[in-house]
Amino acid sequence: MPTYVYETIPQVEGEPAKRFEVRQSMKDAALTQHPDSGQPIRRVPIGGTGLMGASSTSSSSSGGSCGTGCGCH
Q1: Most buried residue, 4, 38, 41, 63, by CB count within 10 Å?
Q2: Is the pLDDT of residue 67 over 70?
Q3: Cα 46 vs. chain centroid, distance in angstroms?
Q4: What is the mean pLDDT of the chain?
Q5: CA-CA-CA-CA torsion sign (9, 11, 15, 21)
């Protein structure tokens, strides 16, 4: 079962969003409320290996755009 990252949607200006993880089936609908507090939440898209694998391969040979060869791009 995959783990998804969610964050709270601040209700007051200046309130920071809080991130947390939830293990749930891919068939389950995305959560809309925090399981404990009921505060509104949204799923945070996190990059997978598809784009990272393609981009890090091409940038690592040239040292990457940050110049350190770290593969962060």
Answers
A1: 41
A2: no
A3: 3
A4: 80
A5: negative
3-state helix, strand, coil in the chain (%, to 5): 15, 20, 60
Q: How far apart are CA 48 and CA 3, in angstroms?
A: 12
> Is the model's pLDDT at 15 over the cut of 50?
yes
Q: What local confidence, expressed as pLDDT, does residue 65 receive?
A: 53
Give the Cα separation of 12 and 2 in Å (integer). 31
- Measured in whole angstroms, the distance separating CA 12 from the mean position of its chain's CA atoms is 23
- Output the CA torsion 48→51→54→58 (10° steps): -120
Rounded distance between C-alpha atoms, residue 49 and residue 46, angstroms? 10
For residues 56 and 73, what is the distance between their CA atoms, to the nearest angstrom?
A: 6
Q: What is the pLDDT of residues 39-49, one digit of tens each?
A: 999 999 987 66
